[in-house]
Amino acid sequence: MKQLNEKKELKKNCRIIFLHHSTGRIISNGGKSRIRILSRLLMQKTFVSNWFTHYNKLNKTKYKIDEYYFPKSKTYGWNNYPYDYYNIWVKNAGNKDYKKEPTLEILTKKYDLIIFKHCFPVSTILEDINKPDIESSEKRLENYKLQYLALRSKFQEYPNTKFLLWTGPAMVESQTNKEQATAAKSFFDWVKNEWCTQTDNIFIWDFYHLETDGALYMNPEFA
Hints:
Layout lengths: L5 H4 L5 E6 L1 H8 L4 H10 L3 H13 L4 E6 L12 H10 L12 H7 L2 E4 L24 H15 L6 E5 L11 H16 L8 E4 L1 H6 L11
Parallel strand pairs: 1-2, 1-3, 3-4, 4-5
C-alpha cells in the first residue's frame, strides 16, 4: 500500500478537495460540538482548513483545502458508493456537470489532490450472485470491483493529479452481520493490496483499519 509522501508527491502550492458526506463534514468541523459548529458559522472556516493555515505558516507551504458534499441530495441523490463514483466520473464523464455534480474533467482542472470517501452503508454488502455488472448499483463485491477497476483506469488519464481514497467506514457489530462484515474487510483488503498497486497516482488512507483495529467490526470505543 502506497503512502502519500508530502516531500516527494505534493507541490508546495497544492490545491486539495475532500469529497464526503456526513462523517466527512464532522471530521472537517473537528467534531460535533456546538462550539465548533458555531465557530465555523462565524469564521467560515472548518477545523481542518484552520489546521492547514497553521501548517502552511510553519512549513512555508500553500496548501489549500476545500470540502464538498459529493454527491448532494439534489439533484443526483444522497448516494456515494462505488457505483455512484463510477456513474458520475466514468459513465458520464465530460466537461459538463452530471446532475449538478462535477466530473473529473472539471475537478482535475482545479485540484492537484482529490480525496474521496464513502458513507458507512458501503459496508452493507450483499452476497455475490456470480453475475458481475458494472452498471448495477447493488452493493456486491463483484460489482464493486468492476466499478473500482473502471475508476482506476479513469484516474490514470490524469497522471498529474493525485487521488487519495479513504477505505470505507466500518460498522458496529449490532448493525451488521458476520457475512457482510467479512465481505467489507475482503473488499478493502483488495483495494489496498491489489487495486492501489497498479498506478503511481492513487494512494490510500486506511480509515477502515483505524476503526476496526484489524478486526471485523468497528471498535465500540470509536462508535
